[in-house]
Each structure stands twice: as C-alpha cells, then as structure tokens.
Design a protein that fits this description.
The structure holds 2 protein chains of 2 kinds. Chain A is an all-alpha fold. Chain A is built from 14 helices and 2 strands, in the order H-E-E-H-H-H-H-H-H-H-H-H-H-H-H-H. Chain B contains 13 helices and no strands. Classes of the chains: A mainly alpha, B mainly alpha.
C-alpha cells in the first residue's frame, strides 16, 4: 500500500514539475538576479561589469524628482480611479439588473475591459485630440472651451484616470453583478417581509452580503492600478513633462528605454514588488481558498 | 411617479452605455472613414461615405503622415498568431498537468496555490527588466521564444487556477473506478479527466491566446524588429508621430481587437471565474 501512495506522490510531483520549472526559471531566478543587481551600478550602455555600490540605488530614488512625480501620479490614480470604479461598477450592477435588455448591456460593457489596452489607447488618443477630438466637441456643446487633454499637467492626469475608469469599471461591474445574482432570493424577500424596501434592502441586505467580493475587486483593482503602463505609453507617453509617468512607465524609461540603468530600475522594481506582495497577501486572505479549491 | 423613475433610470442607462461604447464606435467608424473625414470640426459622427481603403492600404494620407501603416502589417500578424498559439498550447498543457496534481493529490497545499496567485499578480515590468538581461545572454532577444516564455509567466497561473476548479467538479469516484480497473494515474488523467474537462481546456487555451495576443510590455522590451514584434507593438509604433494617419491605424486596431472580442464573448463565464480567483463562480 505504502508503495502505491509513494508512487502516486512521485507522479504528482512529475506533473507539477513543468510549472515549477517555469516559475523557478522565469520568476525566482530573475528576481534573485534583480535583488543582486539592485545593489550594483550596472548600465547596459557602458559595457562595464556591475560595480557593487550598496544601497546607493535605493538612496537615489529618494532624491530623484521624476521618481517622486511618478509615485505621486500612481497614488493619484489609486485615490481617484479605483474608488470611482468601485462605486460606478456597483451602481451599474444595481441599475442594470432586471432591466429589459440586461444581457445586451452586459455584453457591451464587456468590450472595454477585453480589447487590448493598446487598441483602447488608439481610440482615446483620437477622442482627446485638441482640435478635432469628440471629447472637446461634447464639452463645447455644454458651453465649455476646448481642453488640452494631452498638454496640460492636471488634465492629462485626469485624462488617464478617465480612461482607466472606462476600461475597468466594467470589470468591477461584471464581478459585483455576478455576486448579486448569486444572493439567494429568499434572503432579500425575507427582508421585504420585515419592511425593508428598495434602497434599504440594497443598503442593509445586499451590500453587506457582497462585501467580501467588493474587497476582492478593490484589492485586485489596486494592484492593477499600480501596474498601469500600456495606456500611458499609448496616449500620453508620460507627458507633458513627467506628469503622467506611472511608476511602471518610469521603471521602463529608467531601465530599458532611455536610461539603460538596470541597477537603478531593479531597485525601483523591488519597491513596487514589496507593495504588491503586501496587497496580494491581503487578497489571499479574502479569497477563502480552502473553500473555493476544496483543499 | 413610477413612470418618472423608470424614465430617469432609462436615461441614466443610456448615458452610461454611451460613455462605455462611444470610444469603440469612434474607433470602428474612423477605420471606415475616408481621409478627408479623419479631421473635421464638428467631428463627423456619421461618415458621409464609407471605404475599405484603410484596410487595403489604398486610402491616401496627407503630407508627412504615416499612411502605409496597414500594408506592412503582415509580419506582425504572423508573429502574433505564432506566439499566441504557442502560448495557448504550452500554457494549457503545463497548467492541466499541474492542476490535476493539485486537484487530486493536494500537491503543495495552500502554500503552492498562494504562490500561483502571487505570480499572477506580479507587475510585468518587474519581470521584463531582469528577463531582458537574461535573454540577451541567451541570445533570445527578438525571438518568438522570448515572448512565449515571458507570456507563460502570467497565463499559466491563470489557466492552472481555472482548471483546478474544473477538475474539482469531476467526481472523484470516476478516478477511483479507473484505479480499480487497473488504470494508473497517468492513464486516468488522460482518458477520464482530460476528455471530461474539454470545455475547460478550450476556455483556458482561448483565454491564454487572448492574453498573449494583446500583451504589450514584454513585447516592447524583449523584441526589436518585425522578426518577432507583435501587433500591439506595431500599433504602438505608429502612434508616436505627431501627424498620425488615423484611418489605417484604426483599421489595424480593429484587426487586433476582432479575435479578442469574438473569443471573450464565448468564454465570458470562465473569464470572470479566472479573473477573480473563483470568488465568483460566474
């Protein structure tokens, strides 16, 4: 008997092996290398071997104005876009359920989150065009003058927030909508019997029931907002100046596109990884893995 | 009173849907517009005439614009197809094996599953930087394999996750019966689990295909020319000039998004399940 169990365990290990090899080769090893190189002065354009410089790269981040600006933009995005997405997504979920044609609406709302971000970037760059763009046209209809969406520090930041809201509110909506659907009808009806109606039923019965789910989307969205890159690259290219450098975009610029400073980019990446690891840790606590995966 | 509420509700829905659909509508319309209607004030919301010229590379641009965009798309389209197909195939294969071991033997337990989620959440730029250095030493930069390997980092955790839930839904008694009949682990996996979870395998391979197809950052960092660059990079290259020929670019955008939209409508249920790590069954 013992041998059969042992044999099965060996087969199980063999089956996980490709995934393990992939993870070790493509994440563990590169990250170990990244930690190592973050303590070195290593530029790809200088052809010199890495020089050990201790914590110098990390200290430089503190005094680097562009890095600070990219952190401030990323925080701005987290503080603006993510709450809007949660409230709007929740609102749409309540708005659209039980309305004639809800399946069509749900299907259409899927499009913004599914299309490649690069394609969304093209669409929005056209919409934000100063002279001929429809966004400025709509503003002129309600009496506002044209806005330089890609040339003004504040408006370009708001512009990126708007695209993020456009792209990811549908995700929040889809998840919360599915969550609302899965609430047993009897619970809501019992609430009605007890005198809860409309708004009260939503506030005191349904929202508390999907609260864990709201936390899950909140954390997933926060992690994704920290990784924002494609939209920035396509629509603003970090500009004007460095006002819409998202943190990932700045790492890209420092590490591969302009700076080629691998040591510094690695130090920046490690800070990002630490924040994301922390958030992922929260996420895992909220997921109730044991239940979902029957482990 | 009731009708007023209904009316307001209807108006709000129309405004909301307009916000989410208009950018797509604009992209599609631009792709079929003649060059004189790319830049007009007021913008031409309903083009006076439609043309296929933007797709065929016939529509003339204007002085200084990048007009021939669409005619050079072929190598990028080829790279995108090859890379996405390889990713879909390998990702499903690797994930199915691992998911079976996790579903039936609880291999690695909670720790391993948490690890899979963490890898799914990694910021791509943090992988791209060290992979650039490592792949240059291995002379993999600007090759299909650089993209396939880097895309597998985020598609395999996603696929493994979805497949675990699929395999869990298959009654264990079926495996047991197979064991009694003398089948080994490998045999029962191949002849019972795999056929029964065919919809799941189809779902994860399609979703891996979509993710690889639209991926931008790895392709941007790890490839340098049309030998390996994919469609998103092609689109990214033509948006940086200041005189952009919107028609052909929008047309190329449609070519890029068409398969994604098609597949995601088919796979909606599994998509939600995977994106939320099973917090919603979908």
């Amino acid at each position: 008997m013992q041998t059969i169990i042992q044999r099965r365990k060996r087969i199980a290990f063999l089956m996980v092996l490709p995934l393990l090899a992939l993870f070790i080769g493509l994440t563990i090893y590169p990250f170990a290398y990244m930690i190592y190189i973050s303590f070195h002065d290593y530029s790809l354009v200088s052809f010199e071997p890495p020089q050990f410089i201790g914590f110098q790269n990390y200290q430089n981040i503190y005094s680097d104005l562009t890095a600070r600006s990219s952190v401030s933009f990323t925080v701005f995005l987290l503080a603006m876009a993510v709450p809007i997405e949660i409230f709007l997504g929740l609102g749409i979920a309540f708005l659209i359920r039980d309305v004639f044609g809800e399946r069509v609406f749900r299907g259409l709302l899927l499009i913004p989150m599914m299309i490649p971000p690069v394609v969304a970037g093209i669409a929005w760059k056209m919409l934000y065009n100063y002279e001929f763009g429809p966004v400025n046209y709509f503003l002129s209809l309600i009496g506002y003058s044209k806005v330089s969406w890609l040339g003004n520090h504040i408006f370009s930041r708001l512009g990126v927030v708007m695209i993020d809201v456009w792209q990811w509110t549908p995700f929040v909506f889809l998840v919360l909508y599915a969550g609302l659907r899965s609430i047993p009808q009897e619970i809501v009806e019992a609430g009605y019997v007890d005198g809860a109606s409309g708004w009260n039923a939503i506030r005191h019965i349904e929202i508390p029931l999907i609260k864990p789910l709201i936390w899950v989307v909140l954390i997933i969205r926060s992690i994704d907002a920290l990784k924002l890159f494609d939209i920035v690259y396509m629509v603003t290219f970090g500009g004007p100046g460095s006002s819409t450098h998202s943190y990932s975009f700045y790492i890209y610029k420092a590490g591969v596109s302009f700076g080629w400073d691998i040591g510094y980019a690695s130090a920046l990446s490690i800070l990002l990884l630490l924040v994301i690891a922390l958030l992922t840790n929260f996420l895992i606590r909220f997921l109730r893995l044991k239940e979902v995966l029957e482990l | 009173m009731k009708t007023v509420v209904k009316l307001i509700k209807g108006m709000v829905i129309i405004i909301v849907m307009f916000f989410f659909i208009f950018p797509i509508y604009w992209l599609i319309m631009t792709a079929f517009k003649k060059s004189e209607e790319w830049f007009t004030w007021p913008p031409s919301f309903i083009p006076s005439s439609l043309t296929m010229g933007n797709f065929l590379g016939l529509e003339g641009g204007f002085f200084g614009s990048v007009t021939t965009a669409i005619s050079t798309i072929t190598p990028y389209l080829r790279n995108s197809i090859v890379v996405a197909l390889l990713v879909a195939l390998l990702s499903t294969l690797i994930a199915a094996l691992a998911a079976y071991a996790i579903s039936r033997f609880k291999w690695g337990g909670m720790g391993f599953v948490s690890w899979i989620i963490s890898i799914r959440m990694l910021p791509p730029i943090a992988s791209a930087i060290p992979l650039y250095v490592i792949f240059s030493r291995l002379h993999l930069i600007n090759s299909w394999w650089a993209l396939v390997l880097s895309h597998l980092i985020f598609t395999t955790p996603f696929s493994t996750w979805i497949l675990i839930t699929f395999f869990n839904d298959i009654p264990r008694e079926l495996d047991e019966a197979a064991y009694v009949d003398g089948a080994g682990t490998w045999q029962s996996f191949r002849s019972i689990i795999l056929p029964l979870s065919a919809p799941g395998l189809a779902a994860v391979s399609t979703l891996s295909f979509i993710q690889s197809w639209g991926e931008f950052m790895m392709a941007l960092v790890l490839t340098t020319n049309d030998k390996a660059q994919t469609l998103p990079i092609y689109l990214g290259r033509f948006i940086t000039g200041w005189r952009i020929a919107w028609g052909p670019l929008a047309a190329a955008g449609i070519v890029t998004m068409a398969p994604v939209i098609l597949f995601s409508f088919i796979m909606l249920r599994y998509l939600i399940r995977g994106l939320t790590f099973g917090a919603v069954k979908g």
